[in-house]
TrEMBL record:
The keyword Transmembrane helix applies. The chain crosses the membrane at residues 46-66, 106-127, 133-155, 181-199, 219-252, 264-285, 291-310. It is a multi-pass membrane protein. Belongs to the binding-protein-dependent transport system permease family. FecCD subfamily. It comes from Geochorda subterranea. The lineage of its organism: Bacteria, Bacillati, Bacillota, Limnochordia, Limnochordales. Its main location: membrane. It is found in: Cell membrane. It holds the Pfam family FecCD. The keyword Lipid metabolism does not apply. This is Iron chelate uptake ABC transporter family permease subunit. Keywords: Cell membrane, Membrane, Transmembrane, Transmembrane helix, Transport.
Length: 317
């Protein structure tokens, strides 16, 4: 029932988003588009819609994987420094090879994001914190250290404006021919579904997973590789979407439980729906101008993050 509602809501809002914009396009005019309207729909609005759906679904599933592997509901690519690592990787790629291709930049961003994810998991294993709330706080501090290094490097090379562009998720610049790398999210999500059972077992811990015949280290490395790949592709294409991977898995777990296989589809649908809602809000709140999705998501996400912390404290007594 919930899956059908999410799918229906997502399809309805996806249709609405095609008609939101400065150039008027109405349902009645879809069958007789002027050349300008046809260009706007095919070159801008449909690519923008596709990038929203792919980025929202991919980052939400990446957050679900991180929470399973770290065994903590407050961990996500944003609160584990993975997105910061991807941004630093893109910056390094620009500095080392300014004329590098998009695939080369994604490869370097992936390596930095994976390094950040591995470092965060090593910190979680070594720092024995009894209160689970402190783990994402450690991740946020770790991400801020990476972000500070990126800011210093960007300042030294006069690239601060470029770095700021990567800090905020923004779909206003998405055009046909500039977003297609986001389709890499599709096979990564399929790989996540194939490993869903193993991720769930790995979430029970090293000893439990090994006793059930699961290669724990291999599963963790596959999961972190998926998270790093999705983060690198999204950051390089549309920028950072804060707290998305934190909020969506928590909402879905309230009615789907902790079995990742049962939660994957709803997580993808709700993640895409949430980004689409934020995008429509950003496009109409100061019409005909736009507010970036990253800003809208940051406001909603930070409020939801605080609500989750308070709820956790309340349940802990």
């Amino acid at each position: 029932m919930a899956t059908a509602l999410l799918a229906g809501g997502l399809a309805s809002l996806a249709l609405v988003s095609i008609f939101v914009g400065v150039v008027p396009v109405t349902p009645a005019s879809l069958w007789e588009l002027t050349p300008l309207q046809a260009q706007i729909v095919w070159a801008s609005r449909l690519p923008r819609l596709a990038s929203i759906l792919l980025a929202g679904a991919g980052l939400s599933i990446a957050g679900l994987i991180m929470q399973q592997l770290a065994r903590n509901r407050f961990v996500s690519p944003t609160t584990a420094g993975v997105m910061d690592g991807a941004r630093l990787g893109v910056l390094v790629a620009v500095l080392l090879a300014g004329s590098s291709s998009m695939l080369q930049r994604i490869a370097i961003a992936f390596l930095f994001a994976l390094g950040a994810a591995l470092a965060f998991m090593a910190i979680v294993r070594r720092v024995q914190l009894r209160d689970p709330i402190f783990i994402p706080l450690v991740g946020l501090m770790f991400g801020n250290v990476i972000n500070a290094a990126a800011t210093y490097i960007a300042y030294r090379h006069n690239l601060l404006q470029t770095l700021v562009a990567w800090l905020h998720g923004d779909f206003s610049t998405v055009l046909r021919g500039r977003y297609e790398l986001l389709y890499l999210v599709v096979p990564l999500v399929a790989l996540a579904y194939a490993y869903a059972y193993r991720f769930t077992i790995a979430g029970m811990g090293d000893e439990a997973a090994t006793s059930l015949g699961i290669d724990y280290q291999r599963v963790v490395h596959v999961g972190l590789a998926i998270v790093a790949s999705v983060s690198a592709v999204v950051v390089l294409t549309v920028g950072s979407l804060p707290f998305l991977g934190l909020i969506v898995p928590n909402l879905v777990s309230l009615y789907r439980g902790d079995n990742m296989r049962y939660a994957l589809l709803d997580t993808a649908l709700l993640g895409a729906l949430l980004v689409l809602i934020c995008d429509i809000i950003g496009r109409v709140v100061v019409f005909p101008y736009e507010v970036s999705v990253g800003l809208v998501m940051g406001i909603l996400g930070s409020a939801a993050f605080l609500a989750l912390l308070v709820r956790s404290r309340y349940r802990a007594g």
